[in-house]
Amino acid sequence: MDIKTLKIAVIGVGNLGNALVSGLIESGVPATNIYATRRNGDKLEEIKKLRVHAGTDNRFAVKQADVILLCVKPFNYQVVLDEIYDDIDPLRQLVVSVITGVSIETLAAKMPSGMAIIRAMPNTAADVKESLTCICHNGVEDYQVELTLKIFDALGTTIIIKEELMNSATVLGACGIAYVMRFIRAMVQGGIEIGFDAETAGNIVQHTVKGAATLLLERKTHPESEIDKVTTPKGCTIAGLNEMEHNGFSSALIKGLKASMTQIDH
């Protein structure tokens, strides 16, 4: 099935939901085929500019959809599922959950019997079609997996993982956007301190980060092998790297990842 013919309900258009909607439209899904909802209607003004069907009626949105993307907050999903229970049709619809930390088994217990459910964890780079999305499933039909892959491949890159790794995928791929942004911000601040204005420093750092990621993706090399290419004996690069490590750079990052993981597990 061509995703451009799908009718998609995005339930809970917060930051991630908005990114998904924008990415789907950018990928060719007609705005008129998207039904976006949010509990607070006052916060729908921006998404309405995209000409999607935007409102607060989850039941109406679900009734129109072939695919239902659940993007609500973990603390609110039970209320939403109770609300839409009678409107979900296991015979014709697919539910894709991007709810952090909620298993397929838990979701299935709140939905009609036989409901096809897939979990996905994209990130906000879906807005510019550069998301890394991890998906998992538990016994759905092959065509439903392929359909989900088509949806998220249109928003970037998609990989299939085991469900027990979905929380880890959330930390590394979704929370990871924030970690990288903080790294970029720190680099820019350092650039200002050594003489650049903020705009120029930002431009240099953003392209440097993009270049570093592209090197690894295209050459499929290990980060250390690329580091070795720019570290010379008694050079400025190794001096900077060692100073960062003396101050706990790698350790702090790993501890941050583990702290996020602990928060999800609780």
Automatic annotation (TrEMBL):
Subcellular location: Cytoplasm
Molecular function via GO: pyrroline-5-carboxylate reductase activity
Domain Pyrroline-5-carboxylate reductase catalytic N-terminal: 7-99
Gene3D superfamilies referenced in this protein's UniProt entry, alphabetically: NAD(P)-binding Rossmann-like Domain, ProC C-terminal domain-like
Classification via InterPro entries: 6-PGluconate_DH-like_C_sf, NAD(P)-bd_dom_sf, P5C_Rdtase_cat_N, P5CR_dimer, Pyrroline-COOH_reductase
GO biological process: L-proline biosynthetic process
HAMAP family: P5C_reductase
Family: Belongs to the pyrroline-5-carboxylate reductase family.
Protein name: Pyrroline-5-carboxylate reductase
